Amino acid sequence: MPHKDPEAHQKYQQKYQRKYYERNRQKAIENTIKNRRSLRIVKKQWLFEHLGRECLHCGYDNPDGLSFHHTDPSLKRHWGDIRPGQQGGSGIKHQRGIVDYSWKDLKAKVDTLEVLCFNCHNVHHAEERKTTRTHA
Fold first, then answer.
1. Which of 21-30, 55-64, 76-85, 123-132 has the lowest mean pLDDT?
2. Which residue in 36, 60, 91, 92 has a CA-CA distance of 20 to 30 Å to 85?
3. Which residue range is the domain that position 12 belongs to?
4. Is residue 38 part of a domain?
5. How many domains does the chain contain in total?
């Protein structure tokens, strides 16, 4: 018989879900991994549709060799900003992959992204570091 009290029902559901997860932990983890992987693919395809499918600098067009560059670095979000204390206590902030952003954040910043091949992207950031070092 269902609980008439919403709080009692919520407590029952929490207890049930915890036990269910304990019994089916491995399958739940596998499903989460599979769902995240497929969602990343969908987001990457969506970005390619909106930004183009080739490097802006050299025209390289193999999607496996392309990356998304933030034209405004202040909009980058680090994992440490999202989940503090989850870096194994190292205090290091790891950069989030663009396809790990929520849909809302991704759509809001799509205009600040550009497609670059890995080589052009690395050259761009190397030049950026050189100019930063000489001016510091």
1. 76-85
2. 36
3. 6-135
4. yes
5. 1
